[in-house]
Design brief:
elongated
Length: 217
């Protein structure tokens, strides 16, 4: 009975953390996905339940952001919290992009941590068709989330296997392995965020400069 309560509470916790991350809370969604995979490898949760929970939570957060932008429109840009996520330069870049390449932006933003919340809010503001948004975002999540979940599950299984083979050093091996995984993940996330921020700044600067002037003959 207690194990069932803990199991169901864990599913709810995974959903809540991923949902909040999707709304723009500064929690990389990759971390709870990795945590869910690790719990599944330990048998604390069932992977065939945890994985769909991760996918649904990710898409649910994106849909809420879309409908916030769609319902309130540009009025939400007056909210200070929104401006921290959606700067004026990023807003202008995304609005212009949705007029030409809406599907590409939704698909790309799903895989770029620092751009997701801003892009999905802007999709609602730009009145990008909801059925397209749901199809592209859901399709991207169905691909990317299982890949991350599966990789984390496999790595955790390998660490547990090493720990079982060495009874004396099992705790140290698990600790060092988990630290290595978390450290590597943090490094990749930080590097990716810096790269995404640099790309956004370059694009914004190019838009601010406008088209190049014709040469003087």
């Amino acid at each position: 009975m207690i194990e069932q309560i803990v199991e169901h509470f864990t599913y709810a916790g995974i959903f809540l953390v991923l949902f909040m991350a999707g709304l723009g809370v500064p929690i990389p969604e990759e971390i709870p996905i990795v945590a869910a995979a690790a719990l599944a490898s330990r048998g604390i949760v069932r992977w065939w339940i945890a994985l769909p929970v991760c996918v649904v939570a990710v898409v649910a957060g994106d849909v809420v952001l879309y409908w916030i932008g769609h319902h309130w429109g540009e009025r939400i840009l007056e909210w200070r919290l929104v401006r921290r996520i959606l700067t004026r330069s990023r807003e202008a870049m995304l609005l212009e992009g949705y007029r030409r390449h809406g599907v590409k932006i939704v698909f790309t933003a799903r895989h770029i941590m620092g751009l997701r919340a801003a892009a999905f809010l802007t999709a609602g503001i730009a009145k990008f068709p909801f059925w397209k948004f749901l199809a592209v975002d859901g399709g991207a999540a169905i691909v990317s989330v299982p890949i991350g979940f599966g990789l984390a599950h496999a790595v955790t299984e390998q660490l547990l296997s090493l720990a079982r083979e060495s009874h004396r050093w099992d705790r140290w091996l698990m600790l060092l392995g988990l630290l290595a995984v978390v450290g590597g993940l943090a490094y990749l996330i930080n590097r990716r965020m810096k790269r995404d921020r640099a790309v956004a700044e370059v694009l914004a600067a190019q838009r601010a400069e406008g088209p190049p002037s014709p040469p003087v003959l």
